[in-house]
Amino acid sequence: MFKKILIANRGEIAVRIARACAEMGVKSVAVYAEADRYGLHVKKADEAYSLGPDTVAGYLNAHRLVNLAIATGCDALHPGYGFLSENPILAELCSQKGLQFIGPNATVIRRMGDKTQARDSMRSAGIPVTPGSDGNVRDLEDAITIADQIGYPIMLKATSGGGGRGIRRCNSAAELRQQYQRVISEAEKAFGSADVFVEKYIANPRHIEVQILADRHGNAIHLFERDCSIQRRHQKLIEIAPSPQISEAQRQSLGQLAVRAAQAVEYTNAGTVEFLMDMEENFYFMEMNTRLQVEHPITEEITGIDIVQEQIRIAAGMPLRYSQAQVQRRGYAMEFRINAEDPRNDFLPSFGKISRYFATGGPGVRTDGAIYTGYEIPPYYDSMCAKLIVWALDWDSLINRSIRALRDIGVYGVKTTIPYHLEILHHPDFQNGRFDTSFVEANPQLSHYSVRRSNRDVAAAIGAAIVASMGL
Fold first, then answer.
1. Which residues pair with 6 in a beta bridge?
2. Nearest CA to 17 among 77, 57, 91?
3. Which of 248, 336, 358, 409 shows the smallest number of beta carbons within 10 Å?
4. Which of 111, 291, 313, 407 is catalytic?
């Protein structure tokens, strides 16, 4: 087992990894930009080192991170998610310097990060992919020719894209001509590559992903699926495990497809295979994420398996502790991304100082976050400041417990998505497990949420206002 791990990230995921290290008896090293000097991950790690005044560049400097890991006596590096987590250069540098990268090797990261290579690999493995270009399109006219063949609407996607960026829906050749250069420009700025491909647009799909684990000894398993259909502008808001929208037969089939996908590219460590399910309940491979997912806690809640600890064990060369038959699921879990955004103002970021914060609790409730009373959310990073994870034995109980937990949580000083999540939970279609990726756009009234508060909630709000006015 490793003795010391450098966490090449920030925020709640850095806190999550530090906690896993502590439970395994492994020392953790945090890094921070000056804007994160008072970040919770800095306080939770055993050691912490500054990356300088630049807000982002330090987290994206692979050479500096690797050199710092070596200088501080680390024998492994965990990239978390975002930043350099799917950057093959970081994995290569770790390998060259004798540092263990906690994730798959650079070859796999590069292959799966290139959407056209990933699609080709899945086709070869017999996994269904959405109709589209065989590779990157040569130019605009090539894109139009392919779109005419498969039929509109189509999706124009950046080959190296992710996180909902570098993607546009085009309903006609005229729209494709209009959007083509925009996607190229966004791809170059965000991912350093101008390559794009064309894919058939699947109307109102459900977004289903499967968590996999694979070790260096040839063992690969799945930990069931997550439903990530509730999203805004291709950004996930709420995730559910397992999906309330698929049958047991579909669940088993998807799990087997995901394991086959991992084996086809000789994958190791934790990863996620993402699928779209169309209205005829056909599944299509979308992409493979070669890192830890933001929503991994809900899989942990239904299986009892600590995915971060398994990542560390696999990277240390240990075999999986579980066979597929030993992986059992129990109940349902849901994750709510608590973003510092104003739902009533087109989700405008709401950065600033948290004047008061208290986490919710009780049975089946977990909060993964990096905020505290007095913490100032910096404006330079993603707006997610905490994740609320709720578990219950059945779907109806999960809905009720989630409403209670969201009402219990308190974040003051900034706007958050908490009231928006409550509106979604009250929606009858959501309660009945009928939703797809168009849910948010199809219900614009949710961003102008009506007030559903008990007398206790109103009294608490009045009391908080009085306390604030007294400067306490």
1. 29, 77
2. 77
3. 248
4. 291
b/e map of 426-458 (b: 16 or more CB within 10 Å)?
eeeebeeeebbbebbeeeeebbebeeeeeeeee
| pTM summary value | 0.90
Catalogue all structural domains in the chain, each as residue range(s) with its CATH number.
4-102 (3.40.50.20), 131-200 (3.30.1490.20), 206-459 (3.30.470.20)
In this structure, are residues 33 and 54 in contact, taking their beta carbons and an 8 Å threshold? yes
What values do phi and psi take at 369, rounded to 5? -155, 180
A 10 A CB-CB count for 184 gives 18
Q: What is the pLDDT of residues 206-251, one digit of tens each?
A: 999 999 999 999 999 999 999 999 999 889 999 999 999 999 999 9
Active site residue 291: yes
Q: Where is 271: in which H helix or E strand? A: strand 269-277
Q: In terms of DSSP bridges, do strands 352-353 and 376-377 run parallel, antiparallel, or are they unpaired? A: antiparallel
Residue with tokens 């109940």: 331
What is the Cα–Cα distance from 386 to 64, expressed in whole angstroms?
28
The Cα–Cα gap between 87 and 60 comes to 10
The Cα 308–Cα 125 span in angstroms is: 28
